[in-house]
Write a structure and sequence with these properties.
This protein is 70% helix and 0% strand. The protein has 200 residues and is mainly alpha-helical. The protein has one domain: NADH-ubiquinone/plastoquinone oxidoreductase chain 6, subunit NuoJ (Four Helix Bundle (Hemerythrin (Met), subunit A)). Helix 1 runs antiparallel to helix 2 and helix 2 packs antiparallel against helix 3.
């Protein structure tokens, strides 16, 4: 009973946060709504007894990817008006995708409500089962190359984001190591002798 209540509560907050992502006019607000969506998804993973995936979702997506995304949004001077211009152009495709997703969800809910014997809910795992160990065994044996490739792609994304922020644009202050080394004391510091007995 309490599990069903928590599921519907987390799902409701997740849907509202997802709507906030696509309806917010400020990209930073959208990113924060996306963080809330990730947290609610992690709570749903916890209800499914997938603790490792929930922790990874928080650490990787909220702690790393979203911080990187906020860094890119705030540093690249994204033109809000330019982003809004393409909204109406892609609106029919977005509405079509949303209708398909909603239809699939409604079909799954209706299919489970028909009391069909082919639908079997997964049995809960015993207390000694460790999904972290099972997932780690799969990642580092059968899917180790895909795992390493994903790490390289994330590294490239970070390097690309940093290089984009360092592009030449008006008003950008760039550090010049040669000028800093060539500075002399006389150019920066002026010593003034003051007579301590002089009245002020």
């Amino acid at each position: 009973m309490i599990t069903s209540f928590l599921f519907y509560a987390f799902s409701l907050i997740l849907v509202l946060a997802a709507l906030g992502v696509i309806t917010s006019r400020n990209p930073v607000h959208s990113a924060l709504f996306l963080v809330l969506s990730f947290v609610q998804s992690a709570l749903l993973w916890l209800l499914l007894e997938a603790e490792f995936l929930a922790v990874v979702l928080i650490l990787v997506y909220v702690g790393a990817v979203m911080v990187l995304f906020l860094f890119v949004v705030m540093m690249l001077d994204v033109g809000i008006e330019e982003v809004k211009e393409g909204f109406t152009r892609y609106l029919p495709v977005g509405v079509l995708v949303a209708i398909i997703v909603v239809a699939e969800i409604v079909y799954i809910i209706w299919y489970r409500g028909q009391d069909i014997f082919s639908v079997v809910l997964p049995e809960p795992y015993p207390e000694t089962y460790s999904n972290t160990q099972a997932l780690g065994g799969l990642l580092y044996t059968e899917h180790v190359y895909a795992f390493e490739l994903a790490a390289v792609i994330l590294l490239l994304a970070i390097v690309a984001a940093i290089s984009l922020t360092m592009r030449q644009r008006p008003g950008l202050k760039i550090q010049s190591i040669a000028q800093q080394v060539a500075v002399k004391r006389e150019d920066r510091v002026r010593l003034v002798k003051v007579d301590p007995s002089e009245d002020r």
